[in-house]
Amino acid sequence: MSDVVGVSRDGDVAVVTIDNPPVNALSHAVRSGVFEAMKGLKDDDGVKAIVLACAGRTFSAGADITEFGKTPQPPSLIELINEIEAMPKPVVAALHGTVLGGGFELSLGCHYRVASAAAKVGLPEVKLGLIPGAGGTQRLPRLIGPIEALKVIVSGDPVPAARALELGALDEVVDGDVNQAAIALANKVGAEGAAPVRLSERDDLLADVKADPTAFNEAAARLTARARGLEAPHACVEAVKFSLDLPVAEGMARERELFLKLMNGDQSKAQRHVFFAERQAAKVLDMPKGTKGRPVEKVAVIGAGTMGGGISMNFANAGIPVTIIETSQDALDRGLGTIEKNYNISVSRGRMTEDDVKKRMSLLTGSTDMADVADADLIIEAVFEEMDIKKEIFGKLDTLAKPTAVLATNTSYLDVNEIARMTSRPGSVLGMHFFSPANVMKLLEIVRGAETEPEVLATAIEIGRRIRKVPVVVGVCFGFVGNRMLRARSLETEQLLLEGATPQQVDAAITRFGFPMGPFAMGDLAGLDIGWRIRKQMGGSADGGSADVADALCEMGRFGQKTGRGFYIYEKGARGGTPDPEVEALIAEIAAKKGIKRREIGEEEIVERLIYPMISEGAKILEEGIAQRPGDIDTVWINGYGFPVWRGGPMFYADQVGLKTIRDRLNHYAETTGKEALRPAPLLDRLADEGSTFASYAKEREQAA
Ligand code: 3H9
Question: For this structure, is 79 an active site residue?
Fold first, then answer.
């Protein structure tokens, strides 16, 4: 009856099936197809009950996000769900895969829900800067109680079927064919002729919280405590409260109003951009269609230090065996010990069982013999950041690794092509740049060398997904995308101190912008001595930027948190650091020596001078083809450096601010500080002249490719 919705019969039961690959998004065609199907079945006397199912890998993953912001086409999802709920005969939803957002809301309009054991249900709208907007905030509290509903809606995390059954969100969970189970239930309830159970007519589970909202309010405060700058988690709480305070029809109307306000707001636009950008980032424009990666069943990691250990944990977590190679038994024991300690912390926090730890540890084998890489399909080198050592290792790997192995370096800055040239198979070499802590941070920069073969690139992307990272393909340059842009920011941080700002002012401006931490607090956490030692070895800063204040602090033995003093003072037991007048005096002294006249610096200038040079560097990265799209750069900064997701990443943010403004401000700072390095990149200058955006530049480039 429609391209994407079909109706079949099984005795007295009609089965309405949505078939809109890949995730059965509820596009206009789907909504109208289901609407028409339901209308036809309503008065069909031969039909006693209806099953609503989806074909393919999942029940619906929700509203079609690509339709947001376009003229709405009736029927709306709400109208459709209300129509289903009002059906005079029972409607049973047959759920499999990931039943999310509008998909889950659709099932809440049905009168019964049967799910396969592997299914997950959830309302992830909050992650798109939204609230559920098709009745979810009003029906779910009526189904599982307002506090549990609040947890599902504010966290946005999917709930496994077994837990959803416990909560009362599902009527049945089955191991076998979910459609058959739903048909059986439909037959049963159809034959009984019982009136359908409509969630919007229930309010028994709301009574306790209405009488005493203390626990609800506490849960709301807990759930939104870490919502730094985000509007949607608070809006979710507000919407669930409508279910307690208003009649259901009014609650639905208010939910809709709030949903539309968020959908048209900047935060949701940014978060939707991030959703699609993350999926694009691993797509390589010139990769031949259908390219498949090499199979990876065994991994070897060279180096059991902080990075090597963290990287190995990712594979063990995904059930992939890892051989960890070290130069001495001592270093190996230390590395494996740290991994076990980290896992045990997860156990103590209730995130893992002791059994899980045993399983993971049993997948990790230590060795001091490099020849043990011989059976690995993927080898990741994670040793000291020194070119000579890396070259030596790749020379050895070339003689030891099997011919089909993919050879990766975890370098943060160094030239992957130079490393690849140490082997007779540069086509099999690339960078896999993890971010610290490597078992936690989502970003994986995949560095494509000049000769990296498409199949090798595909291997890294596929394995990146398997270990639940967000892979972004980048090209070779000093620092790749993330660290190269960070360097542009770092060049300004100390400069601002010398010109008159305090560390706490800079950090406050950056955290208010939305980063979890300011650059000075971050430096104290990571340890100031690391950069200091490197600068001493190299006889100065690699980038010509000043680190005089950080160097002077290190000379005083102030390495940051680990010594109790750095840019801040860290008292035992206190959270975070407190400003130190001694540091302020030191900054003033260094500025005076350099002949810099200090002045009041406002928050706006701090933000502009730290963020705009990064954007300019991003423009260079784009023009050089180091990143394929501005969205790739955004993905790097959001997943690797804590750029606020609700600002969409630096390049999306730049488009929001306006490229002309950014260009003009950079020119202004270049003139007022005399620093030519602050001049805007040629691409930024050109797009500003044209009144264009990075987004339209990306579109043009993609079309040309
Ligand atoms: C909502 O429902 C609002 C309602 O409350 C109210 C409305 C009034 N729409 O992730 P994958 C695409 S808001 C359009 O790679 P996986 C995706 O871009 C929605 N497209 O697969 C990709 O395209 P491409 C609430 C969508 O197996 C392809 O499908 N729902 C949508 O790794 C495959 O996706 C959500 O937030 C969509 N809703 O993961 C769920 N979803 O191939 C969002 C996916 O061109 N979706 N696409 O790159 C997900 O979380 C994951 O896609 C899912 C599958 C877990 C389902």
Answer: no
Spatial distance between the Cα atoms of 457 and 449, rounded to a whole number of angstroms: 9
In 110-206, which ranges are continuous DSSP H helix? 136-144, 146-155, 161-167, 178-192
In terms of DSSP bridges, do strands 98-100 and 120-122 run parallel, antiparallel, or are they unpaired? parallel
- Ligand 1 is surrounded, with C-beta below 6 A, by 22-23, 25, 61-66, 77, 98, 100-102, 105, 124-125, 128, 132-134, 136, 276, 279
Cα of 611 vs centre of ligand 1, distance in Å, is 31
State how far the Cα of 673 lies from the Cα of 664, in Å rounded to an integer: 14
Specify the DSSP class assigned to residue 575: S
Q: Give 651-697 pLDDT, tens digit per residue.
A: 999 999 999 999 999 999 999 998 899 999 999 999 999 999 999 99
Mean pLDDT score of the chain, rounded to an integer?
A: 95
SS3 state of residue 203: coil
Whole-number Å distance between alpha carbons of 344 and 353 = 9
Residue 316 C-alpha to ligand 1 middle, in angstroms? 28
Residue nearest to atom 50 of ligand 1 (CA): 61
Neighbouring C-beta atoms of residue 365, cutoff 10 Å: 15
125 labelled catalytic: yes
Spot the catalytic one: 36, 85, 125, 453: 125
Provide the pLDDT confidence category of residue 543 given band limits of 50, 70 and 90. Answer: low
Q: How far is the CA of 374 from the centre of ligand 1 (A)?
A: 40
Q: Give the residues across from 380 on adjacent strands.
A: 301, 408
pLDDT higher than threshold 80 for residue 427: yes
Calpha distance 620→197 (Å, rounded):
60
CA distances from 435 to 236, 276, 307, 314, 537 (A): 32, 22, 8, 12, 24
Residues 6+ apart with CB under 8 A from 419: 387, 390, 391, 394, 409, 411, 429
pLDDT (mean) for 172-185? 97
Protein residue with its CA nearest to atom 23 in ligand 1: 279
Q: Where are the alpha helices (DSSP H) in 193-328?
A: 207-211, 214-224, 232-245, 248-263, 266-280, 306-317
Residues forming beta bridges with residue 324, ordered by sequence position: 301, 366
| Nearest alpha-carbon partner for 531 in 560, 504, 488, 505 | 560
Burial of 107 (0-12, 13-18, 19+ CB in 10 A): buried
What residues are paired with 407 via a beta bridge?
A: 379, 429
Q: Is the pLDDT score of 544 beyond 60?
A: no
pLDDT for 169 beyond 90: yes
The residues with which 445 forms a beta bridge, in sequence order, are 433, 472
Ligand 1 closest atom vs CA 66: 14
Query: How many whole angstroms from 275 Cα to the centroid of ligand 1?
Result: 8
Task: Identify which of 64, 65, 95 to mutate to test ligand 1's pocket (most ligand atoms within 8 A of the CB).
Answer: 65
Question: Is residue 519 a contact partner of residue 493, using CB atoms and an 8 Å limit?
Answer: yes
Beta strands 159-160 and 91-95, pairing class: unpaired
Q: Would you call 490 exposed, middle or buried from its count of C-beta atoms within 10 A (0-12, 13-18, 19+)? A: buried
**Partners of 470 in the beta sheet?**
443
Cα–Cα distance for residue pair 447/457, rounded to 1 Å: 9
